[in-house]
Structure formats: C-alpha cells, structure tokens
Amino acid sequence: MASNHIHSAYDSELKFLARRISEMGGLAEQMVSDAVRALVHSDSALAQRVISEDAILDAAEREIGDKAIVMIARRQPMAGDLREIMGSIRIAADLERVGDLGKNTAKRVIAVQGSGVTRKLARGLEHFSELALMQLKEVLDVYVNRSAEKAQSIRERDEEIDAMYTSLFRELLTYMMEDPRNITSCTHLLFCAKNIERIGDHATNIAETIYYMTTGAQPEGERPKDDTANTVGAVTE
After folding, report:
1. What letter does residue 217 receive in the DSSP assignment?
2. Which fold is adopted by the domain 2-226?
3. SS (H, E, C) 150-181
4. pLDDT tens per residue, range 89-115
5. Residue 95 in contact with residue 25, Cβ under 8 Å?
6. Residue 9 to residues 13, 16, 68, 186, 229: CA-CA distances in angstroms?
7. DSSP state of 230
C-alpha cells in the first residue's frame, strides 16, 4: 500500500512539471504575440503589460527548477524518469528566454513611436513572428504527445525561419540606405527581427530536448541553418 502511495505521489509530481511547462509555454506565446502587436500598433500600454508579465515567467522557471531538484534528491530517478525531470528544467529555461525576447521586443515600442513603422515593414515583421510562433506552438503540442518523429521534423524546419530573417534583414537595410531618416526605426526593427529569429532557435532547442526525453538519444546531424544575414553586403570574389 505504501509503495502505491509513493508511486501515485511521484506521478503527481511529474504531472505538476508537465502542467507548469504547458502554462509557461502558453504565457510565452502570448507575450511574443502581444509584443509584436504592440509594436505594429504603437500600443505602449500593451507593451508595458508584456514587460510586467516577464516576472511571472521567471517565477515559473524557478518553481520548476526547485521542484525538479527536490524530486531528484528525494526520488533518485533513473532512465526515462530522470530524462523527464532534466528535460523539464531545460525546456523551462528555453521558455523563460522566449519570454525575455518578447519583453525586449516590447521595450522597442516606445523607441519607435516617434519615427513610426511603415505598414509594409509591419506586415513583414508580423508574418515573421507568426511563423516563429507557429513553430513554438507545434513544439509545445509535441511536448504533450511526445512524438520523436514530429520533434525531429520541427528541428529540420528551423532553416525556414532563418531564411525569412535574412530576407527581412536585407529589406530593412535597403530602407536605411534609401533614406537615412529610416535608420533609427529600422535599427530597432532589426533588433526585433533578431529576437523573433531567436525564438525559432529556442523552439528548435525544445524539439531536441523532447527527442532526447523520448528516445534517450540526441538528434543526429547538424541543425539545419539558413541564416546568411552575416554575409549581406560582404564583398565576394
């Protein structure tokens, strides 16, 4: 009877970690979406809300980390259970960073209010954020169903976000070269675009963690990359 009680309590603790990860994921998604919307519509009140919500995400990551440490010390898990707990710590850290990137984007809202953002550039940034958030949502769904195949598929699609970032990077540089008055606003947008690109990287990190949690092995091969922004404007022979 005591063994059954211990097993039940352990299952409850694992479910607690999974639930908190899902809650963190939902909040991180919302923060990024709201940050981009605040930027596009110059909504400083919404931007301030995003900035304040970052503290909630930070607290959730600490809670998961503290709970995981206690579970490891008390339960001494092995194999799949240990991967589950360690994976929760890693995923929580990635989601906390996604929240930071949403907060950093929100901080740019006030900076670009004076110069404004053209509708064309706003649409490009919105579309880019939608792609990154779709990847984040998909990987959080995979966290629930634990499909190693889908996790691997998401990992291999990271280059789509990299390619779109490079395209947006080129477009923003073109605007700056055409009219120096665009330099300030476009520079802020470049930082925002990089924040969004990094969200895709964190989604890929989560996919790799899920793959490891599920299979006990690391994904094979190098992560696909198509970010060539560092070569834009470079002189080639």
Report:
1. S
2. Methane Monooxygenase Hydroxylase; Chain G, domain 1 (1.20.58)
3. HHHHHHHCHHHHHHHHHHHHHHHHHHHHHCHH
4. 999 999 999 999 999 999 988 778 766
5. yes
6. 6, 10, 14, 53, 50
7. G
